[in-house]
Amino acid sequence: MLLWIAFSLMTGAAILAVLWPLRTGAAAPAASTAEADLAVYRDQLAEIERDRAAGLIAPAEGEAARTEVARRILRATAERASEGEASGEGRRRRVVAVVALLGVPLLAGGLYLSLGSPLYPPQPLAQRLEAQPNPSDIAILIRKVESHLEANPNDGRGYEVVAPIYARIGRLDDAARAWANAIRLLGPNAQRETGLGEALTAQAGGVVTAEAKAAFEAALAADPQDPKAQYFLGLAAEQDGQKEQAAARWSALVAQSPPDAPWLGLLREALARVGAPVPVAAGPGPGAADMAAAESLTPEQREAMVRGMVERLEARLAQQGDDIEGWLRLMRAWTVLGQQDKAKTAAGQARTHFASDTAALGRIDALARELGLES
Amino acid sequence: MNPEIGHYALVLSLAVAILMTAIPIWGARTGDAALMRVGSTLALVLAGFVGLSFATLVVAYVQSDFSVLNVVENSHSAKPLLYRITGTWGNHEGSMLLWVLVLAIFAALVALFGGNLPARLKANVLGVQGAVAVAFLLFILLTSNPFIRVVPPPAEGQDLNPILQDIGLAIHPPLLYLGYVGFSITFAFAVAALIEGRIDAAWARWVRPWALTAWAFLTLGIAMGSYWAYYELGWGGWWFWDPVENASLMPWFAGTALIHSAVVMEKRDALKVWTVLLAILAFSLSLLGTFLVRSGVLTSVHAFATDPSRGVFILAILVFFIGGSLALYALRAPMLRQGGLFAPVSREGALVLNNLLLTAAAAAVLVGTLYPLALEAYNGAKITVGPPYFNLTVGALMLPVAFAMPFGPLLAWKRGDLAGAAQRLMAAFGAAIVIAALAAYAQGGGPLLAPFGMGLAAFVVIGAVAEVTERAGFGRVPRATAFARLRGLPRSVFGAALAHAGVGVCLFGIIAETSWNAERITGVKVGGRFEVGGYELTLDRLEPRNGPNYRDLAGVFTIRRGGVDIGTIESSKRLFTARNMPTTESGIRTFGFSQLYVSLGDELPGGGVGVRAYWKPYVTLIWIGSIIMALGGALSLSDRRLRVGAPKPAKKPKPAAEPKVVAAE
């Protein structure tokens, strides 16, 4: 609000700068060109006089200079006589006033609204550092921890706090280094080792490197049940071409996991990839836990997770096909994942289920058209 | 302070500048006094808004407000306060804002102190100045906006180019801009005169203070830039004929010509067409310099960012203002009435010679700067026009300028007596020969240039003194009378003499440094010693030191001359961590007017460190001479004649109190 008041005052000042000199009664006669010239020439004459009196110029020289200046004075005097007064002032001044009154706010306001960010407050660094911890200002949170760690380089808790944040904003180098420091100072545990392994894997573009693998193995040594470590070790086996070993790890993990574990979809997808039997899903759509888990995954992992969820939906619909919303969601999901064929199949299946329901058929056809599944 | 206030102030400045272009010029065309007056208030308001905008940006830098993109890209919270402030204009966007700020300040100064100007001329001047402001404000807002914000704000900035983290950034650009942009006012006067189609001796008097101001600042700006490059780049050179340096030198030559031709115009009503052209050229060359520096055509420490759209925009501004003003010139110049006549040998003639040589020098620099660019644009060939070309052409043109300089002021207006002037310079000439002989003896062989150049420099300095004593009549009239006359001399005479002496001092420094400097490039271990220019240097220790945003390796040397310990000198290599960029902090010790210069190189594999050491005799005279020149300009500016000449418009009748006066008027 204060900002808008300031803008208005500034705009007002600009307009006033035009209106003030225009007000009636302010018109002191302006210096005419000829008068200004005359003032200079008179001064030049006086100067010549002074120089001559002081003996700085010869009398003859001075006389010649005087004559020249005198000629200029005569010319300027003649010009003064011919200078006329302006007319039609009232209309002109009204035009100028209207242009200023409308033009300044329109131009300045319009341009500013397209260029400026009026709702964004200033962010002086000192203020940000002093303010209460603000979860939306991640940069400052990290900076605070960093400056704390610079002063206390042996505070393992600090590294442990900042490492996942680094991972989340994509500073993978820093994340890996922070996890390593946390392990060095606090000793290994499953969470720290998997954190390190995950950061290293993400850094390598999804490849479980030897270093990452060592970290996951250390995690399993600390907690043999750790699901993340098991999953990634399976992935490592798959990437090494040992599909059976991978399948064995993942199947074991499925067996040990609770039925609503968020990683089950991912596992099912992974198992399908290596050609192992996929256990049937139990849970419905993605829960809050799934979404939270999806936040912390790499793009590949996230896509795999989404795929798992879609497959779960498909399996459910194959058993209970009277859920029109479910079918529509499935069509859309396959399209988003780039599986046009599966989407078309889903549309066909849905049409057979709702052959007698014209309203539902209309919706299916409309969506198929929208998604470009007509052929 | 909210950066948005600055952003809005900048946008509002554009609106104000548009009005400032249109209203006063319309008023001048229709003879409407009120409309013409609007120009003055608008000029003040414009300076206020641009100033507010600039101040807001400075505050954002000081407070490290990283929600402003420009601050993120060019600042760092660990930087000392001074460099956080100077960082504001140590980048493209901020420096353009400073450019416009100086432009607006000059317009405001005309509004405030232009009371002696005829209303019509003043209105047109402010209108033209407004038009330049419109162009550059549009440029800033559309291509180089310093107020763009970032969401979310990062916690730290990317730091400023380390070479710019120096006190030099606080001094050099503002001075240079005061000079560069100061010529916008003389340009505005020239275009205003052409619009009116009317120009006379009085015009020259009104223009002269502005030309002098701009010239003095430009002189200082160039000199400070030269000194900065000298100590910061670590190469020991003080002038590189870098295109960016040339870009500032060209308007300086044109401006120097302008302040001299304006004298002729004021005194004799002659050279009008030429003076107007020079006023246009000086600013056109400033604009060209801005284009070369800002467009990314050149890559140098000055090219903060390269962005083709900016280059095209500035080129368009360049074409509009230079082309427009020259077209107007071609249209109107033939209509201007020619003034007084003069013989070739006369004060006027001498000043014409000065003008010819100076503009030829500007042209030589222009060709040398643009030719490689044009060739590259034409067939992609990359050539460099190097110091030999510039030294030869500019040097060859400046030697006659220096030689003729003492003669000019001794010649009379209209028709001068060359033999008489030469006779009066005999003493100076004799002294010059003595100095040349001394120089030849001191160097004992070696380049002929040194004794000749030093004799010439002495001739210029003593000639400048001779001018003043000659005018006062020492030796011709009784001493008391001469002193009385000396006191009566206008300050502009002292100013001119001082500036001319400054040229001589500067020339002396240039000749001495180039002829007699000594250089030593060597590797040295701790405890090792080497010799340069008669001084023995011993590397005492290498020690690491850390600053707020850099790491430093300093080498400390002991200086001995003839076995006597005369102090230490330090040079260091700095690594700025945020940009991972090294700089050299050269060590300089001044002895008299000469300097010992040490610059630390890289660490050598076998331990020890590379060192470049120079002995630079009389090198400081180069910059001292430049400062003397600028002081001469300032002294000339303080001449009362440049302040008087205010017209006394018919007083508004005071109500009631003096009815008789009203009747009389």
UniProtKB/TrEMBL annotation, chain A:
Q: What is its main location?
A: other
- What Gene3D superfamilies does the entry give? Tetratricopeptide repeat domain
The residues covered by the Cytochrome c-type biogenesis protein H TPR domain are 130-262
Asked if the keyword Transmembrane helix belongs to this entry, the reply reads yes
- Going by the entry's taxonomy, the superkingdom of the source organism is recorded as Bacteria
Pfam families per UniProt: TPR_CcmH_CycH (PF23914)
Residue ranges spanning the membrane: these are 95-115
Location in or out of the cell: Cell envelope
Name the record gives this protein: Cytochrome c-type biogenesis protein CcmH
Organism taxonomic ancestry? Bacteria, Pseudomonadati, Pseudomonadota, Alphaproteobacteria, Hyphomicrobiales
TrEMBL record, chain B:
Q: Which UniProt keywords apply?
A: Cell inner membrane, Cell membrane, Cytochrome c-type biogenesis, Membrane, Transmembrane, Transmembrane helix
Give every Cytochrome c-type biogenesis protein CcmF C-terminal domain span. 315-640
Q: Where's the Cytochrome c assembly protein domain?
A: 89-295
Region described as Disordered: 645-665
Mind telling me which residue stretches traverse the membrane in this protein? 6-26, 38-62, 96-113, 125-144, 175-195, 207-229, 249-266, 273-292, 312-331, 352-374, 394-413, 425-442, 448-468, 489-512, 618-638
**Membrane-protein topology:** Multi-pass membrane protein
Q: Which domain of life is it from?
A: Bacteria
Transferase as a keyword? no
- Report the locations given in the UniProt record: Cell inner membrane
Primary residence = membrane
What family does the database annotate? Belongs to the CcmF/CycK/Ccl1/NrfE/CcsA family.
Quote the function comment for this protein.
Required for the biogenesis of c-type cytochromes. Possible subunit of a heme lyase.
What is the protein named?
Cytochrome c-type biogenesis protein CcmF
Species name for this entry? Ancylobacter polymorphus
